Amino acid sequence: MYLPRAPDSQTHPVFERRQDGYDARMPRPIWSGTISFGLVTVPVRMFSATESKELRFHFLDKRDLQPVGYDKVRRDSGKHVDKEDIVRGFEVEKGRYVPLEDEDLDRLDVELTRAIEICDFVGLDEIDPVYFRKAYHLLPQDGGEKAYRLLVRALEETEKVGIAKVVIRNKQHLAALRPWEGILLLETMYYADEVRQPEKVDGEVRLRKPEVEMAKSLVENLSEPFKPEKYDDTYRKELLGLLRAKAEGEPLPEPQEEEGGEVVDLMAALRESVERTKKKGRSRSRAKKAS
């Protein structure tokens, strides 16, 4: 069943387009296709929902600080290989490779590469966060707004997420489809065999009840509502500051030596931490009342 566009459907601000079809503030979609569950089909476009702020560095010739490019060379002879002579390949056994051409990918199920096929609906709290990889925004294509809104509403009111499979950039992903800020969010996931099981913690440790209660008190005292804007990448900021200072010839701070770990009494450390956090909690309460 395909649900046509509702003539009275409300337009979300992110759906406003320029004449060429895209909002100037919004990147172009990296994927387009459909969401299907039962006989319902929802045409959507996919946009990356996150971006890395990691600082990227260049390789330089230390003699004159000129950039050094990445040369593609053969492993056996060290000779340079032109870009047009390079193909993708898979090592089927030691030293034996099979080339993979674009037309080979076309032989795969085309429908699979353009559909987000929902397998099941589950509760979000049933999924351990270790399975999540990367988030993408899904926005409706023209004519699919009503079906899109219907799916968002159904997921919101049932408090369920769709577990689906989708092919993005020649890789099939497991994914969770859920409502977020009034739109659909698709989060790619690791398959079960991609999640490594942790090593067991060696040694038997007996925890005393007063220690457990004190630790729980410390956790409670440090508990706050989650506000993502509260946290930022201080390391990146400090590194950028150091790079700017170095570029301008300013004196740089001396490297800090790490202090050796001091052996402390666990219970005493917990008790002191609880007392300190109690004081901070009282200060926060007074500040809230004053505001």
Question: Quick gist of this model?
Answer:
This protein has 291 residues and is α+β, with helices and mostly antiparallel strands. The chain is built from six helices and eleven strands. The longest helix has 25 residues, at 266-290.
Percentage of β-strand residues: 25-35%
Distance between the termini: 53 Å
For the CA atoms, what is the radius of gyration?
Answer: 27 Å
| Structural class based on helices, strands and sheet pairing | alpha+beta
Apparent shape: extended
Order of helices and strands: EEEEEEHHEEHEEEHHH
What's the pLDDT, averaged over the residues? 80
Number of helices: 6
Strand order of the largest sheet: 1-2-8-11-10-9-7
Low-confidence stretches: 1-22
- Helical content class: 25-40%
Care to count the β-strands? 11
**Mind summarizing the main beta sheet?**
7 strands, mixed, barrel
Walk me through the structure.
Helix content is 26%, strand content 26%. The chain has 6 helices and 11 strands. The strands form 3 sheets. A 7-stranded mixed β-barrel has the order 1-2-8-11-10-9-7. Strands 3-4 form a two-stranded antiparallel ribbon. Helix 4 packs parallel to helix 6. The longest helix is centred in the last third of the chain and has 25 residues, at 266-290. The protein is extended and about 65 Å long. Mean pLDDT is 80; it is low at 1-22.
